[in-house]
Amino acid sequence: MTGGITKEDVLNALKSVYDPEIPFNVVDLGLVYEVKVNDGDVYVKMTMTFPGCPVASMIVMQAEEAIKRIDGVKSVKVELVWDPPWTPDRISPELREELGL
């Protein structure tokens, strides 16, 4: 990874993106499956909590915008995938504790 942008930078930016139906960010919900950074080009593979999510395109757009705000980002590609399907097991330990799971 070059350009000074790290996977952690991308994940921190994505923590500003919330699922409007579940008021938690997409990182803590476990919706982000993969992050790749290559010389300012950022690729993210993510999903939604269920395939019929009516706000999926809005969340993807918000994710792209959040990543574009990182200094040094040249391009952003957020791919929405449904396989593997999301399960509550993907929720972060911190959020699981907060939710009492």
Give a summary of the structure in a few sentences:
The chain is α+β, with helices and mostly antiparallel strands. It has helices at residues 7-14, 56-68, 93-99, and strands at 32-38, 41-46, 75-80.
Q: Would you spell out the secondary-structure blueprint of this structure?
A:
Layout lengths: L6 H8 L17 E7 L2 E6 L9 H13 L6 E6 L12 H7 L2
Parallel strand pairs: 2-3
Antiparallel strand pairs: 1-2
Describe the structure using short key phrases.
GMP Synthetase, Chain A, domain 3; alpha+beta; 3 helices; 101 residues; 19% strand
Describe the structure.
- This protein is α+β, with helices and mostly antiparallel strands and 101 residues long.
- The protein has one domain (7-99): Fe-S cluster assembly (FSCA) (GMP Synthetase, Chain A, domain 3, 2-Layer Sandwich).
- Helices cover 28% and strands 19% of the residues.
- The protein has three helices and three strands, in the order αββαβα.
- It has helices at residues 7-14, 56-68, 93-99, and strands at residues 32-38, 41-46, 75-80.
- Strands 1-2-3 form a three-stranded mixed beta sheet, covered by helices on one side.
- Strand 2, helix 2 and strand 3 (75-80) form a beta-alpha-beta unit.
- The longest helix is centred in the middle third of the chain and has 13 residues, at 56-68.
- The chain starts with 6 loop residues before the first helix and ends with a helix.
- The relative contact order is 0.22.
